[in-house]
Amino acid sequence: MTAHGQTRRRALVVGGSTGIGRGVADAWAEAGLDVMVLSRSAPTGAGADRLRWVATDLTNAAHVNESLTLAACEPLHSVCYSAVHYGDRRAIFRDCTEAEWRRQIDVNLHGLWLTLSQTMPALRRADAPGVFLGVSSEVVYNAGPGRSGYAASKAAASALLNSVAQEESAEAPGAEALRVVQALPAGMVDTAGIRRRRPEGFDYSTYMRPASFAPLARELAATAGAGLHGAQLVVDGAGAWYPVSEQLPVSQSRTIASGTGS
Fold first, then answer.
1. Which residues pair with 189 in a beta bridge?
2. Which residues lie closer than 8 Å to 97 by C-beta, 6 or more apart?
């Protein structure tokens, strides 16, 4: 409850302990939302004390459902799905294992499906349309070598969100029951997951920061995505955004040989 006796708006970020999800979680907390984070590792550093954390393994469906049931037991204003599994390194298809493929599907796609199925009723129960933000990737538009599982799972996730957005528009034309927005970075982002794949001493000065997503997150918190339902937005390093239909994101694919890559 707030100081005036009003219930705080609640938000959920799946995959919000680090990376883009953390940038969104911090921005929503700064905007006054009560933010719960579901992730394997606990949020740390500045602002972590403003986030409620529930340890969650997205490869364990029963565990995920238990955490999501807890998160969606009351109305939700905003939900972000930012969990991602890139893979241990870039590798051509014949060098990828079934175990890695299954993990990419579990985290990048099935976790999203579970989150949508559990949280959509809670977003609909809010006193105004809730907003669901899916963190997408340029690989959806730029499939390339060494990223087959990542590209396939992220493209499927984007298609899932596009379909849900169209269903929401069909159910309540002009006044969506809830709003679905997708956003992706214009370039590489300095995240813990990326740092695990880079050599010691790598120069990250040209990389985006998770905080680049804060302006969009604040906009969604303030408007619940009004005017952005169904949008697929590219976010740049300065925090500005534009529809992907105006300009496709730059491909981060590169030539890769068997047994190499990062």
1. 208
2. none
Q: Is 180 left (phi over 0), alpha (psi -120 to 50) or beta?
A: beta
Q: Sheet with 178-185: list strands edge to edge.
A: 51-55, 34-39, 10-14, 78-81, 130-135, 178-185, 232-235, 241-243
Question: Which of these, 192, 231, 188, 240, lies nearest to 212 by C-alpha position?
Answer: 240
Q: Quote the strand ranges of 101-212, DSSP E.
A: 130-135, 178-185
Widest Cα–Cα separation across the chain: 62
pLDDT tens digits, residue range 60-99? 988 899 999 999 999 999 999 999 998 878 888 999 999 9
Helix, coil or strand: residue 168: helix
SS3 (DSSP) at 64: helix
Q: Which domains does the chain have, with CATH numbers?
A: 10-243 (3.40.50.720)
Task: Tell me phi and psi for residue 58, to 5 degrees.
Answer: -70, -10
Q: What is the pLDDT of residues 175-209, one digit of tens each?
A: 667 999 999 999 888 788 777 778 888 888 888 89
Q: Answer whether 213's CB lies under 8 Å from 20's CB.
A: yes
Helix axes 148-171, 111-124, angle to 10 degrees: 20
What's this model's pTM, rounded to 2 decimal places? 0.91
Looking at the DSSP bridge assignments, the partners of residue 182 are 134, 232
Q: Determine contact, residues 213/234, Cβ cutoff 8 Å.
A: no
In degrees, rounded to 5, the angle at the alpha carbon of residue 238 between the alpha carbons of residues 192 and 210 is 20
